[in-house]
Every structure is written in C-alpha cells, then in structure tokens.
Design goal:
- It is a single chain.
- This protein has 19 helices and eleven strands.
- It has 442 residues and is of the alpha/beta class.
- It has three domains: 54 residues, no CATH class; 311 residues, TIM Barrel; 47 residues, no CATH class.
C-alpha cells in the first residue's frame, strides 16, 4: 500500500509520518482507491484514507448539538445541505475553501438513496472523498455528512413491504458504518391522501419513520447522537399544512416513545427537485410559499422542540431568494441541481456534446413522448456522473480547476445569503465529536 510511505498504521489512530508528502500525493491516492477494481482492496484503501483524515483532525460529526440549540433559540441562519453528484472531490474542496474564507462551520454534505445508485458513489466512498477534500484544503474540525432522502419507494413497498424495509435498514447500516451521522428518513411517499383526516393520512409515514429512527438509535456509536429528519410532504406535490405537521409529529412521538426523536422535518412549499424544465430547456420560475415555511418552522420549534423545517429543491432559485430562508426560520436548505448545472455549463461545447451523445445512446429509453430534446437532456444528464465516472475524473486539471472556481463562488454566495458565514466558532464550541478509530483490514 503506497499510503504506508506517509503513514504508520501500527498505532490506532494511525500516525502520519510525512504530512507534506501525504498532501502532495493525496489526489492520486484517493483516485487509486476510488477506481480500485477489487472490492475488498477498495474498501481497505478507502477506510485507510478516511482514518488518516480523522487522525489529522477532520472528524465526521453529528450536527445534533447545533440543532438542539437552534430549537431553543433560532440563531437566524439556515444550514446548507449540499448534494455533490459529480466531480465530488473538486466540488468538496471548493466548498471547504469557501468555508475557510467565510469562517463557516454549519454546512452539510449529503447524498440521497437514488444518487448513490446513479452517481456510483457508495457511502464509504462518498464520506472518504469529502474528508480527504477537507484534509487537502487544510480544513479541521467537525464535518457533517448526511444520508438524504433515505426513502421508501412506494411501488417496492406495496409489492413487498418486508423486502423494502430490509433494504432500507441495510442502507442505513452502511451509511452509519461510513460515518454518516445525519440521516433523513422519507416515508412521505406512503402518505395516503384518500383518508379522511391528516392523522390517518400520515399514519404509514410516521409509523415507518419511527421504526427507522429506533433502528438508527440502536446502531449509533457511543458518544454520537445521530441527527434524524423526517418528511411530511413529498417534494413536488401539494404544499404542506400545519395540520399535517402536527398529525405526523404527534404520531411519531407516540410510536417512537423515546428521546431524542426527530430534529427537523422536511415540508413541501412549492419546489420540485431539479426545477421544472420548459421545452426550450430553461427553468420555470418557482414560487416558494415562505409564509408556510415560516409558520410550520415556528410550530415545529415551539410545540415539538425541533430545529425547524427543511426546504428541498432550492438550488435552482434566483440568488436573491436564498436570504429569505433564514428570515422564514428554515433550519436547513437542500441544494443539488444548481451545482450540477454549473458543472455542465462550464464544460466546453465539444465535451458537453460528448456527454450528451453518451446519454442519448445509453438512456434513450427515458426520452418519453412529448419531451423535447432539451428537457430530456436536462432531466437525464445527472446519470452521466456515474455511467461516465472515469471520464469525469479524467478531465484536464485546468478545466476541473476552472469548474471548481465557479463552484467556490456559488458556495461563498450560499454561505453568505443563508447566514452561515462566521459560524465556525459556534460549531466548534457546540459540536465536539469523539474520535472513533476503526480497525483497518490491512
């Protein structure tokens, strides 16, 4: 293992013998681990790199203490939760550079159940890449990594509830082993709007969310309280109501029966994941119901002790909209497609067409009747990050650097508008994660 040149793995945690040499070789070491064809060796390499980052002060953490403080006294900022689908190492490095410049500490990296598949990033790889990016940029302290939309797929659940539940439990266990200490359970797909009352409509949602929360608590490591989120309104559907929020949280608390329970709740306020694509490929303007977001966040805090409500599907909004989330009391804002759009827009035309040609050839069956070419490409191009993974990692360094500069500018804007610039000291004071060294299969 080339890593042994720089690291002594005999103690636990490992001791870095040559920090400067490690940083010089880190990019290549990480790429070697990501593309190692042997599954066992790949896991060993990723684990080794993750443990090295931890030993250097880059520590996976739960944001729970901050959210508990937010529940008691809302500090006036909304935490960005950022889904990195492609060029993850470069994007994360850009996010950490922007954080260091802004002295930001309250921000989350996340990946959804669906993204794990189509971006070909299993939890261990994702967390290792994020932690190595922090190490590379000189960022030290707690790093928050989140399982986003760990969702019950309705058609799978209706066909075989036990199999779908078991799959989700295995995914949760995999995420926890990779040190994801934020997990968002999404059973809102099972809400039954044909029922007469909000309580009956939300029953499948809160029952399964409580079961998964209990499962998470049974597995969380000593010294870590995993930050758990729920969801009441499937994103892209009708807007959530106070009655639904109360019905869900009362039902959850009754079924779960323990403390701590949920720390946040995702609601629907008018957005759609990825935005609504018009026939010419442009995005329709989204009207977010900030009044509902504020009302439900206040209820979540005042009546149930949560940090507040979570806004999904926000990354394609105009810049001026982001400062409205802290004003509305949103505790967390999820951002994904906007970063993807920056990456694609920064590609030279010939490279973009190369990706689009691949998409048409390999995903053409998803081009449905009535969909323009622009709509098809916009909707489908996220899948090229996994299917063309080596292509993306192999882009010229100067092009990746240019893309990273544009991403860094976006991260800086988000940290500023969402109010998390200057939160590093608060995070360090509140969040003091234990270093949990892992035995390595070396």
């Amino acid at each position: 293992m080339r890593l042994r040149k720089f690291v002594d793995f005999s103690p636990t945690p490992p001791r870095v013998k040559d920090p400067e040499g490690l940083l010089l070789e880190l990019d290549g070491l990480l790429r070697e681990a990501v593309f190692e064809p042997d599954a066992g060796r790949k896991q060993a390499l990723l684990l080794a790199l993750k443990e090295v980052a931890k030993a250097q002060g880059v520590v996976p953490a739960s944001i729970q203490p901050l959210y508990e403080a937010m529940a008691r006294d809302y500090p006036g900022f909304s935490v960005p939760a950022m889904n990195l689908r492609g060029l993850t190492y470069e994007a994360a490095r850009a996010a950490f550079r922007a954080a260091l410049a802004a002295q930001a500490g309250a921000f989350i990296f996340e990946i959804a159940r669906s993204e794990i598949g189509y971006t070909a990033q299993r939890p261990l790889e994702y967390s290792t890449v994020i932690l190595c990016a922090a190490l590379r940029e000189g960022y030290r302290g707690p790093v928050f990594i989140q399982a986003d939309h760990f969702q019950f797929v309705r058609r799978h659940y209706e066909a075989d509830p036990e199999a779908e539940t078991s799959y989700l439990k295995r995914l949760i266990q995999e995420a926890l082993e990779a040190e994801f200490y934020q997990i968002d359970i999404d059973a809102s797909t099972l809400v039954d709007l044909s029922r007469a009352s909000p309580e009956e409509q939300q029953r499948p949602n809160y029952t399964l969310t409580a079961q998964m929360a209990a499962f998470i608590r049974s597995l969380q490591p000593r010294g870590i309280t995993v930050c758990i989120g729920g969801e009441i309104g499937e994103i892209g559907g009708r807007n959530s109501t106070a009655e639904e929020l109360r019905a869900f949280l009362r039902g959850f608390n009754q079924v779960f029966g323990g403390r701590p329970g949920l720390s946040k709740l995702s609601i629907q306020t008018g957005t759609t994941h990825g935005g609504v694509v018009l026939p010419d490929g442009s995005l329709a303007q989204v009207q977010i119901d900030f009044k509902t977001l504020q009302e439900l966040s206040e209820i979540a805090r005042r009546e149930f002790g949560l940090s507040g409500c979570v806004q999904h599907g926000a990354s394609t909004l105009p810049e001026e909209a982001f400062s409205l989330f802290p004003q509305a009391g949103a505790s967390e804002v999820h951002l994904a497609t906007g970063f993807q759009n920056i990456i694609y827009e920064a590609l030279p035309q010939e490279l973009r067409q190369e990706v689009y040609g691949f998409i048409k050839e390999h995903f053409g069956k998803e081009w449905t009747q009535g969909m323009t070419e622009e709509q098809f490409l916009y909707k489908t191009r996220k899948k090229a990050f996994g299917a063309m993974k080596q292509w993306w990692w192999g882009l010229p360094e100067e092009l990746k650097a240019e893309i990273a500069r544009k991403l860094q500018a976006r991260f800086a804007l988000l940290y500023d508008r969402l109010g998390v610039a200057g939160t590093a000291q608060m995070v360090r004071e509140l969040v003091r994660p234990p270093l949990l060294p892992r035995r390595l299969p070396l």
